[in-house]
Amino acid sequence: MATSNVPESYQYLSDKLKQYYRSNPGLHEHYQLTRYDNICWVCLRWLELLPIEVKQKQLLLSQPNALFVAEFIDKLFRYPLIDPE
Prior knowledge:
Number of helices: 5
Helix content: 55-70%
Strand content: under 5%
């Protein structure tokens, strides 16, 4: 995935990740350098946290641009799956 700054439209993904790590500090300790301003880093951290299938993670990791991954994560947050039961 190519790296770049977090676009304004996906800034909330970075903000939510910061918030998540603040509320779960043990998960954040192993990162010596945080890159909340880098969309690739933010997307990689979300892929580590999200409960999605390995095949889907591999497909997302193979994308040439982190914005494709950000779009996927954005849709997960904006349009969560609702169990019909």
